[in-house]
Amino acid sequence: MCCSSFLKPLGSDGAGQNEPPCFSPGDGVVQHSNGFGLRQYSGVFAAVVLLFFLATPTVYALDGDDDGVDDLYDNCPSDPNPDQEDFDNDLVGDACDASPEIPNDADDDTIVDLADNCPDDVNLDQSDNDEDGLGDVCDPDDDNDGAIDHEDNCPIDSNPMQEDADANGLGDACDPNFPVGYMAETVAFAMNIILEANPPGGNGLISKLTGKGGVLSRVSNAVNAFESGLIDVYTYLDELESALDKLDAFNNQLSAKTSNGQIGSMDSIALMSASGDLRLTIDSLVTATGM
In CA terms, which of 34, 69, 122, 206 is 20 to 30 Å from 171? Predict the structure, then answer.
């Protein structure tokens, strides 16, 4: 018997019938020692080893350019650059950087991508209404209130419940209450057109009308302060003039977006008309001072 038995063959003593398998030296087979004539299986261990390796996944590092740097960490995965040089520190290696001495600026707004809060959208002023690190022109929720800008009745002022007491389309959070309150209806009209068109950077247009320093808040603050005696007429006129300057900025941005096709001609005409109405209202406030 080639192995010591744990269980003896079935016999008069009533013991179990099987024993552990045994190895036959020289023939590379496995035999059963109980003498029952079971078929011998050769190459069992070789097959088991093969199956083990086939079932075990192997992770290989990818190095497409054969420069010794794993593609995952290679700043030029398609161009050999074992030293990983990056003169302008823009995370694009010199070997594949079109301008290795000039930091990349994908949107050509003169602000390098690493410092640009909207690297793919032109935004020279880097305005970031909610200060979340994402510029207004590429931030889908400029006031971080959970309402996406194109569905928000106050895209620049937080109003998660979207309250609108007078149902004029402009949320309470950005609808000031002052003697020329009908300006709010014009702004709401313009804002809804922009939201519907949803052009890239449309929030920049909206912020010039409803933002913290937009046309509506500038006029509202000026009127309330003047009527309360908190500012003199000259300061009042200066504030109204700043509102007109903001309106000019709105018109300039609107013209640019119309020229590059981001806003259709019909929407542009409607927005220019709304802007004209706002200007007439502000001009009437200036005229009313008699100055």
Answer: 122
Task: Please indicate, yes or no, if residue 108 is contained in any of the structural domains.
Answer: no
Domain membership of residue 15 as a residue range: 1-58
| pLDDT per position as a tens digit, 224-252 | 899 889 999 999 999 999 999 999 999 99
Looking at residue 81, its pLDDT comes to 92
Of residues 283 and 169, the one with the higher pLDDT is 283
Starting from the edge strand earliest in sequence, which strands make up the sheet with 29-32, in order? Answer: 21-24, 29-32, 41-42
Q: Do residues 148 and 136 lie in contact, with contact meaning Cβ atoms separated by under 8 Å? A: no
3-class secondary structure, 24: strand
Give the orientation angle of helix 182-197 with respect to helix 265-288, to 10 degrees.
Answer: 160
What pLDDT was estimated at residue 43?
58
The kind and range of the H/E element at 51 are helix 44-55
Longest CA span, the chain: 129
Domains contained in the chain, number: 2
